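A sample copied in:

***
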Amino acid sequence: MLPIVLFSHGNYSQATKETAEMIVGDLEEVYTLAIKVGSSISEAENDLEGIVQKYNGNIIVLCDILGGTPSNITFKLKQKYKDMVCYTGFNLPLVLELIFNRSGETKDIKEMIRTTYSEGLHEIEYIELRQDNDSFMDL
């Protein structure tokens, strides 16, 4: 089972983990890191590297947005730990999918993440009420 790090700006990573735990219970080997106002970049780098070292680089790191401080720190560290699986743009459905499917090979996990991202785009729907009876419209 590959450990997971959720790395974000603000409380997003912690809130995502807490929400996932409401659905599936306590999560083992799921870590959260956050960049907040006044955060030390070097402290965040050290915190992430400490977790990554614990697993010899065999870890999944999900960052909130491409080009943000969490992803920049992660990609810098990936140069040293080539086996890290790193993605940006995490959300609750992806995190839940990973929790249930993180025991496979790294290449399988990469494919699962790509598939989950692609399928997730099809799950975004606009919900509208019908004029006649306030029921949901088929979209």
